Amino acid sequence: MEHKPATHADLEALPEHVVGEIIAGELHVSPRPASPHTVAASVLGMELGGPFHRGRGGPGGWVLLDEPELHLGQDVLVPDLAGWRRERMPRPPRTAAFTLAPDWVCEVLSPSTARLDRALKLPVYTREGVRHVWFLDPEVRMLEVFRLEGARYSLLGTHTSTARVRAEPFEALELELAALWDEA
Predict the structure, then answer these.
(1) Does pTM surpass 0.90?
(2) What is the SS3 assignment for 29-61?
């Protein structure tokens, strides 16, 4: 029996309390995130939004979005956060999905999504030329920062606990990790 690739209709048929993605023709369904995940993603978005999206107290030059639906070739991904340099995307298109690959994505890891984020989504980001990928793990209180070099990602740094860090591509801002774990 032939396996039929997942379609956008399969995503639309999912209940609202889950996140659906299509990778290599296969539908992947994840539960909505628990509060440590949500807090980390929300606080990171707030921390980066003022200086980079709005240019308040920072260099500006970015469009930063929470959970955008990315249509990258046949794959449909929903990173926790994504950013485009304004010279590549001056304004977000007035569509539900984005076909232009971001310059940066952040995946907030949870026990139910870590393998999906690392093993299946990272190769798509590589193929599409996403320059920077962050993995943020609120359970172990860790930020991993990667930069695309050629056809693979290089680990630029692993930051843990309550460190204060400057991480590409947002090194103009000192990020206080304790805030992401709701400890500051």
Answers:
(1) yes
(2) EEECCCHHHHHHHHHHHHHHHHHHHHCCCCCCC
